[in-house]
Design a protein that fits this description.
The chain has 498 residues and is of the alpha/beta class. The protein has helices at 14-34, 36-39, 47-61, 65-72, 92-113, 144-152, 172-183, 202-216, 227-238, 246-255, 272-287, 307-313, 326-340, 346-355, 360-377, 384-390, 404-415, 419-423, 429-446, 452-458, 464-480, 482-495, and strands at residues 40-46, 76-81, 84-88, 119-123, 137-143, 192-196, 222-226, 259-263, 291-296, 317-321. β8 (259-263), α11 (272-287) and β9 form a beta-alpha-beta unit. It binds adenosine-5'-diphosphate and magnesium ion.
């Protein structure tokens, strides 16, 4: 629902609307400072809302969409300490990159939206114990319009559009369905279920639908949520003893919308309470012809969820995305180069596309690596010796990308344990250490392309905090315990066939 105080927003294009809106808000802040009573109200605002809004600002300010995706979007807000926003990075490498390259932009974005927040601090999990007394909910002077904007506006990644999506045989059906639903939501295809392997464009297509819907139907309330977010919000509402209406609010939030997009619904597996909630949310929206769009890494019938939900998920249209063929992969690389202004020859693009066949994100990663390496050494990204140097550590030249299975197999072989035991429940020392080392290596090698929750799921439905714990424990051990460090090195060599 568009707030009627933001006059005219429905009539102008989406991008203009955003600029106008932000400027209107800034204006309100200035006016509000001059006349507190008229324009400002002190509103209790949640950390997630604050962070979401900073992300909206940052998504248009961080120069590369990939960098935004990898380094900014994955930061987690920890809390506010006085005038400082504390953000948690997933790895030390991410923390360093953000501090060295993006902290100033982040500070500016934060300060532009919330003038009372002056600084940002990036921490990693080990630092969490030193963080005390942070606020998760704050009274911040916010204009009434602004609070609504925070709640209602979804920050779709601006670069994830249909125009930037390359269509080939492997994804043409999914793309056509996505376009159709973006033009006419809630009519023909409901629900839409997109499925396919990691890094094949599911999230890109969902954001493309979102961007198009926001432009075509600015008055509609569109909600995009990752399954993890939905699960966490549900659990938080369930256990919120401070607010007896928390559950009611949670339900209202998800049931008063026009379009619900939920990404990675395979993470509903083993979460019975959330499945039940999702079932009712689904029914309510579906019965009132509201559009539902879901994504998953597998088809509905293969998700480990209750039957009635599986049936619901599969009642509309199911569209799969397969790994693209060579021509499409080259065309995707070409498109990314055009978007970023990289001048890379066809033969280098072909070389990359032949090397990485099943994950577009990995393919983009290799392209970026070649560009950053050539910039670093002052070389030409079209010089094959530079290209080869840049990707030396990526994988053995004769092999394709590293998969989770490959890391697990190498670990099992090295320790002489079975895969069932490694991913199983046993907690004796003989299996716990190999399991933790394996998780550490998966995070280290595939961390940017694989959410922690999906690693947890691979390891018998463990929670993402268990994955984080294993990863950080072995990371520490590698520094202090030569025997563990050697084991990690030996397995890594095995994985890379060195
Ligand atoms: P998934 O959600 O399936 O894991 P993403 O949507 O996150 O994958 O896609 C990973 C990366 O690959 C993104 O940067 C996305 O823009 C890019 N990508 C995937 N498919 C295409 C495509 N057909 N055209 C352009 N870019 C693509
Ligand atoms: Mg995704």
């Amino acid at each position: 629902m568009t707030n009627n105080k933001q006059i005219g927003i429905t009539q102008i294009s989406q991008s203009c609307a955003k600029i106008v809106k932000i400027n209107v808000l800034r204006c309100h802040f200035v006016l509000a400072k001059m006349s507190m009573f008229v324009y400002n109200i002190l509103t209790m605002i949640k950390l997630d809302q604050i962070w979401n809004n900073i992300l909206i600002e940052a998504s248009s300010k961080v120069p590369s969409a990939l960098a935004y995706d990898l380094y900014i979007n994955s930061l987690q807000p920890v809390g506010l300490y006085r005038d400082r926003l504390i953000l948690l990075a997933e790895t030390r490498a991410q923390k360093n990159i953000v501090e060295n390259h993006y902290k100033d932009i982040l500070k500016k974005c934060t300060n532009a939206v919330f003038p009372s927040i002056i600084d940002v601090e990036i921490i990693i999990e080990q630092d969490l114990e030193h963080v005390a007394n942070v606020q998760k909910e704050v009274d911040i002077p916010v204009n009434a319009n602004y609070v609504n904007a925070v709640e209602e506006k979804v920050n779709f990644v601006t670069q994830y559009t249909f125009e930037n999506f390359v269509v080939g045989k492997s994804n043409e059906f999914a793309e056509a369905v996505a376009r159709a639903v973006a033009e006419n939501p809630g009519t023909k295809y409901n629900p839409v279920f997109l499925w396919g392997g990691v890094g094949l464009g599911k999230t890109h297509l969902m954001h493309a639908i979102g961007n198009r819907l926001q432009r075509n139907y600015p008055e509609k309330k569109i909600m995009y949520v990752t399954c993890d977010q939905f699960v966490n919000e549900f659990i938080e509402s369930l256990h919120n003893s401070n607010d007896p209406d928390a559950m009611k609010k949670f339900r209202a939030k998800y049931r008063k919308i026009d379009v619900l997009m939920m990404d990675d619904v395979q993470f509903l597996a083993n979460k019975e309470g959330t499945q039940e909630e999702m079932f009712h949310t689904f029914n309510e929206l579906y019965l009132s012809d509201k559009q539902i769009i879901l994504s998953s890494d597998r088809p509905p019938k293969e998700i480990k969820i209750e039957e009635r939900l599986k049936t619901r998920f599969g009642t509309g249209i199911i569209a799969d995305i397969q790994p693209p063929d060579l021509e499409t992969r080259i065309a995707i690389l070409q498109k990314k180069c055009n978007a970023k202004g990289y001048k890379v020859n066809f033969n280098v693009l072909q070389f990359i596309a032949e090397k990485i066949t099943t994950n577009i994100r990995e393919m983009e990663g290799m392209l970026n690596r070649i560009i950053s390496y050539s910039t670093l050494v002052g070389g030409d990204p079209n010089d094959m010796s530079i290209v080869n140097d840049a990707i030396k550590d990526y994988a053995d030249a004769s092999t394709d990308i590293i998969t989770i299975d490959r890391i697990v197999n190498a670990t099992c072989e090295y320790f002489g344990v079975t895969k069932e035991a490694l991913v199983g429940k046993k907690k004796n020392k003989e299996i716990v250490v190999p399991r933790q080392i394996c998780i550490y290596l998966i995070c280290d090698i595939l961390g940017q392309s694989l959410p922690l929750a999906s690693i947890g799921e691979y390891f018998g439905g463990r929670d993402h905090t268990t994955v984080m714990h294993a990863r950080d424990k072995i990371s520490e051990e590698c520094k202090n315990n030569a025997s563990i460090a050697n084991q990690v090195k030996d397995i890594r060599d095995k994985i890379y066939n060195r």
